[in-house]
Design brief:
The protein is an alpha/beta fold. It contains 3 helices and 6 strands; from the N terminus they run ββαβαβαββ. Belongs to the anti-sigma-factor antagonist family.
Length: about 130
């Protein structure tokens, strides 16, 4: 059974990025809830979003579609999107799917990232 959860930070007034930690699988079953959550987080002007994908075990085409959608939304609003992926999983996925240059991938959380608070990918109340 697929399950994805996310944790996100409230956007601090200091301009620090909002961090969303995604866990589990990003697939056809979990993509709609994650997409809706990320749409809420990127609805305003100039979103600064960091997606921590280090705890993601699997991404299918639906999950990749969510990443491309959030990237397009952030860029359209003149914001910034960074992905955190430990190891080679994300880089290999992006290279094999032809989107290698489309995302800024970091090895760890940026120093400016704020602490995270719990929230489910389904968009329940939280950060």
């Amino acid at each position: 059974m697929s399950e994805t959860t996310s944790r996100s930070t409230p956007r601090p007034a200091t301009g620090a990025a909002r961090v969303v930690t995604v866990r589990g699988e990003m697939d056809l079953l979990t993509a709609p809830a994650l997409r809706d959550r990320l749409d809420l987080l990127t609805a305003g002007p100039c979103p600064d979003l960091v997606l921590d994908l280090r705890a993601v075990s699997f991404i299918d085409c639906a999950g990749l579609g969510v990443l491309c959608r959030v990237r397009n939304r952030v860029l359209a609003r003149r914001g910034r999107l960074r992905l955190v992926g430990g190891g080679t999983f994300l880089r290999r996925l992006f290279r094999n799917t032809g989107v290698a240059g489309a995302f800024e991938v970091l090895p760890g959380l940026p120093a400016s990232a704020a602490d995270t608070v719990s929230a489910r990918a389904a968009g329940e109340a939280g950060g």
